[in-house]
From TrEMBL:
Listed name of the protein: Sulfite oxidase-like oxidoreductase
Every Oxidoreductase molybdopterin-binding domain range: 34-178
InterPro entries, A to Z: OxRdtase_Mopterin-bd_dom, OxRdtase_Mopterin-bd_sf
Organism expressing this protein natively: Sphaerisporangium aureirubrum
Domain of life where this protein originates: Bacteria
């Protein structure tokens, strides 16, 4: 089947689906900077805060009631593995951002456990980012970010914060966890933006 040979054309030449410096993997490695938090769905919350201090909150039940999408995307980790054709279900970020009044350019995403990552608001819009709660047809497993994680497949996977619990919109860019210790502020795999200065 084409799925199996999709990453290579001919003699091991990477095809267009593989950004520079990446190799293909079929398993789904787990990369976490700390322990996997266990989050009780009764207490789970997602909080959106705007640059003016407006807040919007969803509990788990409310979140599941939001319109969701099923997407198939390729994942690219800065440690050089890529996994192609992964399927997810989640809420597109624009469905959340539509609910507040904002003109902010920057977002800082935060997670249970304290992880943060920053990205431009425009990278969250137009079908580029989701808060995903299902992977491969199943509820998202805790080690991969369940109950819910950010999914921003066009950037390196560290931007896809696991155990996500909110988003702070701001006029100023603020580096997140990895961005503040040397990883690229934007992290485009196609331009190989791995570290500061790339
Ligand atoms: N909350 C949180 N999210 C996180 C991380 C983390 O340590 N904590 N690691 C990031 C990194 S570096 C990667 S490569 C991906 C890994 O996702 P996976 O474990 O589902 O493969 O999660 C990202 N999101
Ligand atoms: Mo990573």
């Amino acid at each position: 089947m084409s799925v199996i040979s999709r990453g290579f054309r001919g003699r091991g030449r990477p095809d267009v689906n593989l950004p520079p410096g990446q190799y293909l993997t079929k398993d789904f490695p787990v990369l976490s900077a700390g322990p996997t938090p266990r989050i009780d769905l009764d207490r789970w919350k997602f909080t959106l805060t705007t640059e003016s201090g407006e807040r919007r909150e969803w509990n788990w039940e409310e979140f599941l009631a939001l319109p969701s999408e099923k997407v198939t995307v390729d994942l690219h980790c800065v440690t050089k593995w890529s996994k192609l054709g992964t399927t997810w279900e989640g809420v597109p970020l624009e469905a959340l951002l539509d609910e507040v009044d904002t003109a902010a350019d920057h977002a800082l995403v935060h997670s249970y456990g304290g992880y943060t990552t920053n990205l431009p608001v425009e990278d969250l819009l137009d079908g580029k980012a989701w808060v995903a709660y299902r992977y491969d047809g199943e509820d998202l497993e805790p080690e991969h970010g369940g109950p819910a994680r950010l999914l921003v497949p066009h950037l390196y996977l560290w931007k896809s914060a696991k155990w996500v619990n909110g988003l702070r919109l701001s006029d100023e860019d603020e580096p997140g966890f990895w961005e503040s210790v040397g990883y690229h502020n934007y992290g485009d795999p196609w331009r190989e933006q791995r570290y500061w200065g790339d």
